[in-house]
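Hey, I'm writing a tutorial for new members on how sequence and structure tokens pair up, and I'd like a real worked example in the thread rather than a made-up one. If someone can provide the structure for the chain below, I'll link this post from the tutorial.
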Amino acid sequence: MKILVYSLVEPKMTQGVGNVILNVSKNLPYKQTYIYPKKKNLLFYSFLSPLWFALQVRKIKPDLVLVHTAEASFDPIIARKLFRFKYKVLSVAHGLNSGMLKAYKSEKAKGNTAQSFMFELNLKISAFRSKFIRFSDRVTAVSSFVKEELSKDYGTKSVVINNGVNEFKKAKVKTKCEKILFGGNLFWLKGLHYLIDANSKLAKSKKIIAVGISKDQEDFLKNKYDCSNVEFKRTLPIKKFEKLFLECDAFAMPSIYESFGIVYLQALANKMPVIASKNTGAEDMIVDKKNGILVKKANVKELSSALVYVDKNIKKLSANASLDKKFLWKNIAKQYKEEIELLLKS
């Protein structure tokens, strides 16, 4: 059996989708071939990518295409239709760019983002391409939230297969809450600005370590918010980022749009209570006031209350914070194996 693994970018461990691709593939008992368009922008914006994909298929001759992201499904679906290929398509929805586009427009209207015109155009094209996921033979969603999105927006049925992590060394229960860790590369999407604002309103604010923020974003935030108690860091190597889970006391990423959030799992595995948003993929991991706090999106008042609650109840929340074994990559891969076998038998 030949499996072709397809995504629009080169898989890397430091990327959310890349992390999933590499870890799932490593734990599957099949030989797999990875491809991605090295000149993504030219192919993507000209809609010539299905032709490029068809050329790769003629060389590889796969039985199944495992495609990561809804927008990437456009290429194997169109190529199969145009050239009558016989491969099956299993698409993994890591979120929908239609949802991300709504979040972007909302934050842009509030003056909370300075992204370029090309960024918005990219989202609009991605949202259009994502619609073709409905023509896949089977679809999986990385969370219950994404499953609901697929059903509501595209009328597409899907099976939930969450993302995962590798096992961490046993961490100690946190006994104080002085440092809050944040990790995300688009502050307006991940809600860092609301976290900073909420923290600055506390009588005794916490130290926020914000990882993954570019210099431009840091300058934007400093011009608009009180960042006196925020330490900004650029994207870090995996080992250095993981070290921060041991050095900090709680994790907060109150996203405006979040399909899953592997960082939440990493935090829980390190006994860190998590502050996340309601109506996101975080609800597959976080139980409100048990191992973290769930707040309304873009709600500074609730975020401030959440920070106070975590501070007062750090021991209880940390004791309950743990990694459910079902989220280990080896167990996640078993679910993908089942889907692949079901699809090839159909």
